[in-house]
Design brief:
about 220 residues, about 40% helix, single chain
């Protein structure tokens, strides 16, 4: 590909196996060098959860704790996410959790590694992994956590503050919802705001829980 750095590997579509099961995708993604983010990250952090999960949560990218552990949503935002799922009545072990970008992007400040938002080129390079996960899992409901995930899945006009909390039809699932990323709750300026934002997040998750109960006995529809 013209203009690609010498140490970059093939684009993601060339890495996706012919029969893209989750174990095969996870194994292939370990070797991904489709963008420069692999150079500084500890490892690829692929999605996790049941192969036929009813709901898929999609975040932005792994954070520092996730990069070191190799698992999504295990840091402070992940703990808040877990607690919020429990409060809403959703079993985390029954959902699939992943990110749009599979490598941690950061800037160094002393010994700390500070999250940096992925750019459009990095999102485009990594997005075929998410497409493959959607095709393998075939979730009924997809939840975009934060603006990066929402716009990657639904387009640049989506705004979390305006569009959050509603289930809308999608080409890749029965329904999609946009809501905040748990990390944004942790960044709230004070305890009162943090509590308010967390309550709003749990309200959104309860919409998901209700929809899953209502669809429990319905057959899954095919999505392209």
């Amino acid at each position: 590909m013209p203009g690609r750095d010498d140490d970059l590997g093939p684009p993601v579509p060339e890495l996706v196996p012919a029969r893209p099961t989750l174990p095969r995708l996870r194994l292939a993604a370990r070797e991904c060098r489709a963008c420069h983010l692999y150079r500084e990250a500890t490892q690829t952090v692929f999605g996790e959860g049941p192969a036929r999960a009813e709901v898929m949560f999609v975040g932005e990218q792994p954070g520092d704790a996730e990069d070191r552990a190799g698992h999504p949503f295990v840091g402070p935002a992940g703990r808040l996410f877990q607690e919020s799922l429990e409060e809403a009545g959703i079993d985390r072990s029954a959902v699939y959790i992943t990110n749009v970008v599979k490598h941690f992007k950061f800037i160094r400040r002393g010994k700390r590694r500070i999250h940096k938002k992925p750019n459009a080129e990095e999102i485009r390079a990594c997005f075929p992994w998410l497409e493959a996960e959607l095709g393998a899992v075939k979730p009924r409901i997809v939840v975009a956590l934060g603006a990066v995930a929402a716009q990657a899945l639904l387009g640049s006009k989506v705004r979390v503050t305006k569009d959050r909390g509603r289930l809308n039809p999608a080409s890749f699932a029965d329904a999609v919802m946009v809501t905040v990323h748990p990390s944004s709750i942790l960044r709230a300026p004070d305890d009162e705001t943090r509590r308010s934002e967390r309550r709003a997040f749990v309200r959104d998750l309860r919409v998901i829980a209700k929809a899953l109960r209502e669809r429990a006995n319905e057959p899954r529809r095919a999505h392209g």
